[in-house]
Amino acid sequence: MDIRQLKYFITIAEEGQITAAAKKLWMAQPPLSHQMKLLEDELGVVLFERGPRQIQLTDAGKILFNRARQIIELSDSTIKEIEDFKRGFKGTLNIGTVSSSGNILLNEGIAKFHKEYSGVRFEIHESNTYTLIDLLTRGLIEVGIVRTPFKNALFHCRYAEEEPMAAVMDKKYDWQSGTNIKLEELKGRPLIIYRRFDRLIEDVCAFHGFSPEVFCRTDDARTSILWANAGHGIAVVPASAVTLASHENLRVKIIEEKRLRTQITAIWMKGRYLSLLAEKFINHFTAI
Q: Which helix (H) or strand (E) holds 114?
């Protein structure tokens, strides 16, 4: 039993037909059937139940199918890891980041990573959390820098420090001189909501017995801040995002509400190869 035979076997199981599998593998059907016969003889079991139109895996075939995929993935991961080693930590790291991540990619830990691995180049994809999760599951990026909350069952997570949400506004909307407010103080005021937190804000306001007066919803924290800076309403954004856009006219109020706290999080897929470059990057991401 070798890697080549296991790849043949997996293709047949996925295609459900020897003919279709042979076509996908760019080989003739008789040699493929012969390889499967050799594999069955070596293992001493029948792997397929051959029907008139499709083949089905036997119980033994199902066991081999699950193990074969693990073996192939381990083999591929080992090859990639050796390639990383030979390159001496040089190459391109594909990461995704949300617009509200602020200066997280410019912090001391990432600066140290760049100094230690100066041969690394970056491809940065900037979008919202849900788009980045889609890019990650499709393998187009290796690490995502996203914000909680999100469904994390598919991912390994490395969390940065938790932070509050802030209400930012032009002075004409400022009703008091303090730097902290209660969520209830936003009742009846025109809010500019970063759509990423729309449902969360709705739910927390409902918990406090009122519905938010949403003037505008945006897909980018920077847009929310710019609209607030222009005097169009009160933006509700993560506190660290305030510096992402022009805010010289803004008053910043930290919202004292535990349910509205959020975290920047580095995520990567469970059960998928993670390059040494990405591993080092993640370690530096939360180094401080």
A: helix 108-116
The CATH number corresponding to 3-86 among 3.40.30.10, 3.40.50.300, 3.30.450.70, 1.10.10.10 equals 1.10.10.10
Nearest to residue 149, comparing CAs of 270, 282, 265?
A: 265
Residue 88's contacts (CB-CB under 8 Å, 6 or more residues apart) are 119
Q: Judging by beta carbons within 10 Å of its beta carbon (0-12, 13-18, 19+), is residue 146 exposed, middle or buried?
A: buried
Tokens representing 186 are 């936003």
User: Amino acid identity of 154?
Assistant: L
What confidence category does residue 288 fall into, taking pLDDT thresholds of 50, 70 and 90? very low
Fold of 165-260: D-Maltodextrin-Binding Protein; domain 2 (3.40.190)
Question: Which positions ≥6 away from 182 have C-beta within 8 Å?
Answer: 255, 256, 257
Is the pLDDT at 24 greater than 90? The verdict is: no
- Give the number of other CB atoms < 10 A from CB of residue 126: 14
Whether the CA torsion 27, 28, 31, 34 is positive or negative: it is positive
Residue 199, token pair as written in the block: 């449902």
Question: pTM for the whole thing?
Answer: 0.62
The confidence score (pLDDT) of residue 9 equals 84
Q: 149 preceded by cis ω (within 30°)? A: yes
